[in-house]
Write a structure and sequence with these properties.
With 239 residues, the protein is an alpha/beta fold. The chain is built from ten helices and ten strands. 34% of the residues lie in helices and 26% in strands. Helix 3 packs parallel to helix 6.
Length: 239
């Protein structure tokens, strides 16, 4: 059996005395796309914060590429191969597009057969960013900022890309472009964890789905299984 790139086991976490996560467990295989599904406030973003060392876990383990990663600071998690496209994009608005892309760029040692993400490759992937490369982040549209947030994450050359509400608040045409982008990244073999409200698109994109309700994993399965159980979508996602 293939060793998962990311393994989360018995994760518990919270804020002060308020516990939010209760024994959350899931894994991501190399090149696999999974979703974290659930209504707002159910623990998805808290799980992401734990993955990236932004919130300490009170119990459980997080392993990245076979080595423990819980308790590591965010920059060391990133060096292990995780990259985050955060909710709200959070680009550097006072920097240009190109400065945003190179600010946190990292090129690890890799097999020569693996193509690294460079400025030229990101610009080829998002031609609009090349056109706007000298513009400040504050001068970009919401869709351009989202492309920049994804491009910035890719410039760290991750093995697992985590996207928290990447299509939230975008115009339909831009949302469609983002979904096409994620599909292309999947075809290139980049593992992903996607948090989004568009179940239809997620069913087309993802290999497996993890449903979280009140800080607990209440269901896991592939897209065919989720489509065969519409009551899961209605009960836990409210759509």
């Amino acid at each position: 059996m293939t060793t998962p790139f990311l393994s989360v086991r018995g994760l518990q976490a919270g804020y002060g005395r308020a516990q939010v996560l209760f024994d959350v467990s899931f894994e991501v295989q190399p090149g696999e796309v999974i979703t974290l599904l659930g209504r707002n406030g159910m623990g998805r973003s808290t799980t992401v914060k734990c993955l990236f060392g932004m919130l300490p876990a009170s119990a459980g383990t997080i392993e990245v590429d076979g080595a423990r990663a819980d308790g590591l600071p965010s920059h060391r998690v990133a060096r292990r191969g995780l990259a985050l496209v955060p909710e709200g994009r959070q680009i550097f608005t006072a920097l240009t597009v190109e400065e945003n892309l190179v600010a946190t760029a990292f090129t690890p040692r890799r097999d020569r057969r693996t193509e690294c993400w460079t400025l030229d490759r990101v610009y080829a992937f998002f031609p609009r960013l090349k056109e706007r490369r000298t513009n400040l982040g504050s001068q970009l549209s919401g869709g351009e900022q989202q492309m920049l947030a994804i491009g910035r994450a890719l410039m760290t050359n991750p093995k697992l890309l985590v996207l928290d509400e990447a299509t939230e608040g975008l115009a339909p045409l831009i949302r469609a472009e983002i979904w096409r982008t994620l599909g292309e990244l999947k075809r290139e073999g980049l593992a992903q964890i996607v948090i989004d409200k568009n179940v239809g698109q997620l069913l087309n994109l993802a290999d497996r789905h993890v449903v979280i309700e009140k800080g607990r994993v209440v269901w896991q399965g592939d897209s065919a299984a989720l489509q065969a159980q519409p009551e899961i979508v209605h009960q836990y996602l409210g759509v």
